[in-house]
Amino acid sequence: MRDAIHPRRRGGPRIVAIGGGTGLSTMLRGLKAYTDRITAIVTVADDGGGSGVLRQELGMPPPGDIRNCMEALANVEPVMRELMHYRFTDGSLAGQSFGNLLLAALNGISPTFDEAVERMSQVLAITGRVLPVTTADVQLEAEFVNDARVVGESKIFYCKKREDCRIRRVRLLPENPPALPQALEAIDRADMILLGPGSLYTSVIPNLLVEGVADAVARSRALKVYVGNVMTQEGETEGYTAADHIRAIFQHSVPGLFQLCLVNSAPIPREMQEKYEEEGAEPLVCDEAECGKLGVELVYRPVSQVTDRYVRHDPALLARALIELHSERSVRLAGGGYRIEN
Fold first, then answer.
1. Which residues contact 80 (CB under 8 A, 6 or more apart)?
2. Contact 304/230 with Cβ under 8 angstroms?
3. Where are the domains of the chain?
4. How far apart are CA 309 and CA 292, in angstroms?
5. Which of 196, 274, 208, 279 is nearest to 242 (CA)?
6. What does the DSSP assignment read for 79-146?
7. CA distance 54 to 64
8. Cα–Cα separations (whole angstroms), residue 7 to 71, 192, 324
9. Cβ count within 10 A of residue 48
10. Distances, alpha carbon 131 to alpha carbons 42, 146, 169, 221, 258, in Å
């Protein structure tokens, strides 16, 4: 096992990580210590904050989630890293990040958005690749169990709080946008495919609604793992168990899309639980029997940490757990690639 988990930057399994938001970038930050063959496939449904402003004013896909992933995989000097994180505080640029503006500028001089992302990846000398799941102009619509609907990712939180009921389904508008071909190719070549961690309905599922993505994941013979969130999320998954998350993903894609779900086993401090309870959130309940009925095995690992008064995944612990899991469940083939051991 020592050799399997020793950090290395060249070689290693071909890992495809699908998602968005801070959860995906956190995981990527840890994984780049083990392999340089990482492809992050990122949602482009965001319409809020600085990304939403650039999307509306420049007609470009939202850059925020993609920028976060590139920052996580970047290999640059500290000053450049600080510059990428910098947010303007005054004037018309208040709240906008330099990284978003750099990607917007590259988009302006590039034939396509995915080429702009590739150019920025070169500037930041990232480990692996970051790909938008689609370059189509898409919006996310949520439908609630009381039949209420709302269009716009940034509005889902507030609508759910107002309606006070669960989300029945989400869809992309227009539906079934074409996937970036490179994203499908990466899935086909993957040794390990990771879904999440991150917001269930606004970061993970939107990728699976892009034409061809869910089918590509389903037919892949790679080790497929859903990385469960440490806590439920206010305004999205209050009261959800692990099985509820898995069931929602299967309903929006393909039943049996994956067979493993990695969940946190580290204890959550009581004071942190109380803080989250005030917002209607709680540690994810791992209902093994219900997950088993869905054909999914729960794998427990201590992968959380408390930072800035929030409970989050620890990048190093999460990456180590995933690499260990891949080593335990896969066999390296002499000609390259892996065979999955059930």
1. 74, 124
2. yes
3. 1-43+176-342, 48-125, 139-173
4. 33
5. 196
6. HHHHHHH-B--SGGGTT-BHHHHHHHHHHHHSSSHHHHHHHHHHHTT-SSEEEES--S--EEEEEETT
7. 10
8. 20, 17, 11
9. 17
10. 6, 36, 25, 21, 22
Could you please state the CATH topology (level 3) that the domain comprising 1-43+176-342 is classified under.
Rossmann fold (3.40.50)
188 touches 9 (CB < 8 A): no
Rounded to whole angstroms, the Cα distance separating 44 from 140 reads 10
Q: Which of 320, 330, 335, 340 is nearest to 35 (CA)?
A: 320
Alpha-carbon gap, residue 288 to 297, rounded angstroms: 8
Residue with tokens 């669960």: 166
Is the separation of the CB atoms in 293 and 242 below 8 Å? Answer: no
What is the per-residue burial (b if ≥16 Cβ within 10 Å, else e) of 109-120?
ebeebbebbbbb
Token pair 């083939």: residue: 333
CA neighbor of 273 nearest in space, from 246, 307, 311:
311
pLDDT of residue 144: 98
User: Whole-structure pTM over 0.70, yes or no?
Assistant: yes
The residue whose two tokens read 């990712």 is 153
> Which tokens go with 130?
């970051």
Distances (CA, A) of 163 to 48, 166, 206, 282: 20, 9, 22, 20
Which tens digits make up the pLDDT trace of 131-180? 999 999 999 999 999 999 999 999 999 999 999 999 999 999 999 999 99
Name the stretches of the chain with pLDDT < 50: 1-8
In angstroms, the CA 192 to CA 223 distance is 5
Q: For residue 175, with 0-12 CB atoms within 10 Å meaning exposed, 13-18 middle and 19 or more buried, which class applies?
A: exposed
Number of H helices, E strands in the chain: 15, 14
User: How many C-beta atoms lie closer than 10 Å to residue 16's C-beta?
Assistant: 28
Question: What are the structure tokens assigned to 21, written together?
Answer: 């938001």
